[in-house]
Design brief:
- This protein is mainly beta.
- The protein is 3% helix and 46% strand.
- Strands 2, 4, 5, 6, 9, 10 and 11 form a 7-stranded mixed beta sheet that branches.
- A hairpin with a 5-residue loop joins strand 4 and strand 5.
- The longest helix is centred in the C-terminal third of the chain and has 4 residues, at 99-102.
- It is globular, with a radius of gyration of 14 Å.
């Protein structure tokens, strides 16, 4: 599957952005995750959504501010980001891994590590600054 992330930009602290991850195949066959890499920092898992769309997880740093949703008709996953802060500044990547494989491999009760994702989008830059 090919992934295309978009929606990044410059936003003031407290503002909102919605990132999109458009997939070339049916998103119901994959878990779609979001990661970010801030300048000078390691890549960090942000969220993922399972194909049933009721299986979602978030990192503690974004919980309560970010939501994730999927539109199967458009094969697109959205990351809605609210109350953005300067520490959210990063390149955001979406990634995918096979639902059929992952659900029989690991427990889905926490964020999945990047190593379990096989497909990656190109990243979109989010800058939070006044």
């Amino acid at each position: 599957v090919q992934l295309q992330a978009s929606g990044g930009g410059l936003v003031q602290p407290g503002g909102s952005l919605r990132l999109s991850c458009a997939a070339s195949k049916n998103i119901d066959d994959y878990i779609i995750g979001w990661f970010r890499r801030a300048p000078g920092k390691e890549r960090e898992g942000v969220s993922f959504i399972a194909p049933t769309h009721d299986g979602t997880h978030f990192s503690d740093s974004v919980k309560g501010r970010f939501t994730i949703s999927g539109d199967s008709a458009k094969n697109t996953v959205y990351l809605q980001m609210r109350n953005l802060q300067p520490e959210d500044t990063a390149v955001y990547y979406c990634a995918a891994t096979s639902w059929a494989w992952i659900r029989n491999t690991v427990a889905l009760d926490t964020l999945l590590p990047a190593s379990l994702y096989d497909y990656w989008g190109q990243g979109t830059l989010v800058t939070v600054s006044s």
